[in-house]
Design a protein that fits this description.
The protein is 83% helix and 0% strand. It is an all-alpha fold.
């Protein structure tokens, strides 16, 4: 097995665990409470580290061997999932979830704590992985390598993972968490087989303030990267509003169980896989500017159609188109970033970028829960559960209008 193949296989296993957790985190929360805002706190714990730890992760990534950092973070995630699995097993059977409050506050707190650890480790692991890939392939092959990597990650994360996670939840609630612990252990073994040193060359004495200033100075002089970062951040806010709203909307408005819900997410993965495989050709045909503009423009109708979808099949088709556009956008965005940033600065600039791009996720999750909680009284609950989709659709219209010209000008100047 080649080094790149090992790297992709390890990412595939880690993303299989992430895909299983996509269903597991929110579904477990929904079994402890029916309060949309409380349910949102679990994915908030998972995403909050992107805001808190992105900058330290960038400094660390540019100081240490990136392969070793991946190993330690995957081991930590495996341990956190093992503890969560044990806690759920000891708590079975669960009491019925109340409309307000929590049926098991201690278990809920432990699940939030495990999600916080997993999210923190993910910040360091993903930053290290994205900055390590350019050392494995020539820069001219980055689009192809990213396409291969994401197709494997999508199959694991969004196609197999959610469906498998939903099946495991229906069979035994602790099983998804136990499987994730094993998957991260296997990923560690694969990365152990990658030889070589992946520590960036240090050209100046270590000073974390100075190092962060260097990364910030580079980002200030790169308007295209700034445009991609703030656009991705706003889009991620809207995306998280929709994903957390979907849990209760699928359960209560559409009457979907865990297994069917997992298949809906798997339908989106099929679109994402097609996007990862066709993205390079689309970029060659349209150019990077037009590709990002038109992929962004699909978000508003997709969010609206999610609220209008009458059943699982229609919802899965909407997700397929939505994920196709999202993965095509990512191929342009990440490849551009990897190509433009020098290796010695890649960790820091990448972390600053992802602070802007991912740090808004918790805001979207909280907004979604607040929208449902504040409107569920004046409006029927079934209507309130769809309002985050309409809010996201309006936000996507505004985002597309605001970003269209900036993206076109940025790629033209870059």
């Amino acid at each position: 097995m080649t080094i790149l193949a090992r790297f992709i296989a390890a990412s595939g296993l880690a993303n299989l665990a992430d895909g299983v957790a996509v269903v597991a985190w929110a579904w477990v929360a929904s079994l402890l409470t029916r309060d949309a805002l409380l349910i949102a706190l679990v994915p908030v714990a998972l995403r909050l580290p992107w805001f808190l730890l992105a900058l330290p992760a960038g400094v660390v990534t540019d100081r240490v061997d990136r392969r070793r950092l991946i190993l330690w973070m995957d081991a930590l995630r495996g341990l956190a999932f093992a503890v969560a699995a044990l806690a759920l097993w000891l708590a079975m059977p669960l009491s019925p979830a109340p409309a307000t409050g929590l049926s098991a506050p201690g278990l809920f707190a432990l699940i939030c704590g495990a999600a916080l650890i997993v999210g923190g480790a993910e910040v360091f692991r993903d930053n290290a992985a994205q900055t390590m890939l350019p050392a494995l392939v020539p820069h001219t092959a980055l689009e192809r390598a990213n396409g291969r990597l994401w197709s494997v990650e999508l199959v694991a994360n969004s196609l197999i993972g959610p469906a498998f996670g939903a099946f495991l939840i229906a069979f035994a609630l602790p099983l998804p968490f136990a499987l994730n612990a094993a998957a991260y252990g296997a990923a560690v073994l694969l990365v152990l087989g990658i030889s070589g040193s992946f520590r960036p060359v240090q050209t100046a004495p270590r000073n974390w303030r100075a190092e962060l200033r260097q990364g910030l100075a580079f980002l200030r002089t790169a308007p295209l990267l700034r445009s991609l970062a703030w656009t991705t951040g706003a889009w991620n806010l809207l995306h998280q509003m929709v994903l957390i709203a979907l849990v209760l909307h699928a359960q209560e408005n559409l009457g979907l169980g865990a297994q069917v819900y997992g298949l809906v997410l798997a339908g989106g993965a099929i679109g994402g896989i097609l996007g990862s495989l066709m993205g390079e050709r689309i970029v060659r045909a349209l150019g990077p500017a037009r590709t990002t503009q038109w992929m962004l423009a699909t978000s508003a109708p997709a969010f609206a159609l999610m609220a209008l979808a009458p059943g699982a099949l229609t919802l899965a088709l909407v997700f397929a188109v939505f994920e196709f556009s999202g993965l095509t956008w990512n191929i342009v965005s990440v490849s551009t970033r990897q190509r433009m940033i020098p290796d010695a600065l890649l960790g820091r600039v990448n972390s600053l970028y992802r602070l802007l791009a991912w740090g808004m996720m918790p805001v979207g999750l909280i907004l979604s829960g607040l929208i449902v909680r504040l409107t569920e009284g004046p409006l029927p609950r079934d209507v309130a559960l769809t309002l985050p989709f309409w809010a996201a659709a309006l936000g996507a219209v505004a985002l597309t209008a605001a970003a269209w010209r900036a993206l076109g000008r940025g790629f033209a100047d870059g």
